[in-house]
Specification:
Elements: H1 2-59, H2 68-73, E1 97-98, E2 107-110, E3 123-126
Parallel strand pairs: 1-2
Antiparallel strand pairs: 2-3
């Protein structure tokens, strides 16, 4: 009887060890997949907002909006809401738009007037970190 108990306990311990081993191998892959999906969503959101700005510009005789969030979401004509920007793991999710980018706020950035480095109407991600492809977020 003791022999059966011992072999049963050994089998359970081996099963637990196998599960733990597989978890150790697969967990980093899972984290990587989740991060890449967040990055793809942020890039898609960036494209959608740039498109909405371009349509607004066309609808308003070549004028960019002053208050971007209000102009794009009014009556849901261009977008229903400002989607999240998320640059994992460096910044938390948010849907804020800054017109005074710091270079690493983790927010959407919008240029309201021409400057030495950017033109009015430009829209980008205000983040100096790199994504999983090695591209700096602000270069998208």
């Amino acid at each position: 009887m003791d022999m059966k108990k011992n072999s049963f306990i050994v089998e359970i311990l081996i099963g637990i060890a196998v599960v733990l081993f597989l978890t150790m191998i697969l967990y980093p892959k899972f984290v990587s997949i989740v991060r890449k999906s967040h990055e793809a969503t942020t890039r898609a959101n960036l494209t959608a907002l740039r498109t909405a700005i371009a349509v607004y510009y066309g609808d308003n005789n070549g004028n960019f909006p002053e208050n971007l969030a209000e102009a794009l979401t009014k009556d849901g004509k261009y977008v229903k809401y400002i989607p999240d920007v998320y640059c994992p793991p460096y910044h938390d999710k948010n849907n804020q738009i800054t017109t005074e980018p710091t270079g690493d706020s983790g927010k959407w950035a919008y240029q309201t007037k021409d400057s030495e480095t950017r033109q009015q109407g430009e829209f980008w991600i205000d983040c100096s970190h790199k994504d999983t492809n090695g591209i700096v977020w602000s270069e998208y």
